[in-house]
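Slack export, channel: ligand-projects

TW: morning all. Re-posting the request from yesterday since it got buried. We need the structure predicted with the small molecule present, not the apo form. The ligand is copper (II) ion; the SMILES is in the block with the sequence. No rush, but it would help planning for next week.
GE: picking it up
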Amino acid sequence: MRVFPTTVLACALALCTPALTIPTLPGLRYTLATPGPKPPAPIGKQPAPDPAAAIRFTYPAPQCALASVRIEWRSLTIVERTAWLGAVKCLAKVPHWKNLQALGKTAGAPPINTNSSLFDDFSWIHQDYASQVHLTGFFLTWHRWYIANFDQALRQYCHYAGPTPYWDWTKDSQDFQNATIWADTNPLWGLGGFGDPKKEYTLTTGAFANFPVVYPYVHNLRRQYNPLPFNFTFFPAEYRTVVPTYTFTPKEMNYMTENFTGNFTSFQHYFEKLWGAHGSIHGLTGGDLGGVCAPSAPTGVCTSNQFSPNDPIFFLHHANVDRVWAAWQRQNKANFWAFHGGSVASPNIFDPNDPDGNGVAPWLNISSPFPTDGILANARIADIMDTMGGVLCYTYDTYAFSL
Ligand SMILES: [Cu+2]
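GE: finished. pasting the full token output, ligand included:
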């Protein structure tokens, strides 16, 4: 039987988005946060829902009065952690969505494996669109929509009704290898640690021990701590020998959210530049999250390094990326609706002050629709700029950063 959340009544009164439910457990898990400023200009009608899409949101979105609250992983109860991990494992048992379409065509993306799951489909979409949703105006925007769709999939297919978790990695910036995020090895409620060196760093602890994934080849989930993720010749020498934990300290997040006022491009670029906070988390965690194949991978299959969503911690990582953006948006009215970005990555990827740091022409604008591969629900950038408006209805338990 489906257990309805405590706010189902509010939803029935069209006060919130039923699709994005809020926690079932008692306690102060949600707040009435202040909605952001109104959009700067008319942005037209909602996109029509796609009846063939796997994930559905309510159109037109109801007013968001009572937002669901995203909570840091370690602040969840054990019951909530168990439920979320169980729902992810459930999604990995939901069959591949037959209407998944190869529309992104990023070079190196593997072919669709129809003997897979809806969880694998999410990983595949990320590989298919890799070149369009990184280092472009779709980085923060599309990933916000992508993780909202993943969250909705957990609720739609696996009856998840708890809070959406995020991973505040600033708390782990002192000693990443021995951080508390890796310390819980319980098979029901632990995220597990790093993998077993004797098994090519396959995860053998926590809920995702021996978790099977199919991209870019059939294997079990891997995590391999890599203190020097930029130690290869592709990177300028100054980045190669540095353990990049300094990029995601609380101080650094405060710097980011307090600067770049009104300048979406420079804010995103500081965050997404290859040696920045976003990439450092991927690289230090290594294995699947770092887009690294095992030495025993069959020859010729490892042509994409964009299968990072194989590791469910991806969605916690990107929820925190989203939280930092949302914190910046809330810092100043000039930030809230600020958007600028190209649809093609700038060629100057190692220029720390690249004025085209989030892409070049053809330009995206606030009405640009998201790429969906026939799985994600339709939406435009404008629909997701406000986490408490458009088609979204969530906030975070805190926008502050501390150890
Ligand atoms: Cu990505």
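GE: first-pass observations. The chain has a mean pLDDT of 90. The first strand starts at residue 68 and ends at 72.
TW: perfect, thank you
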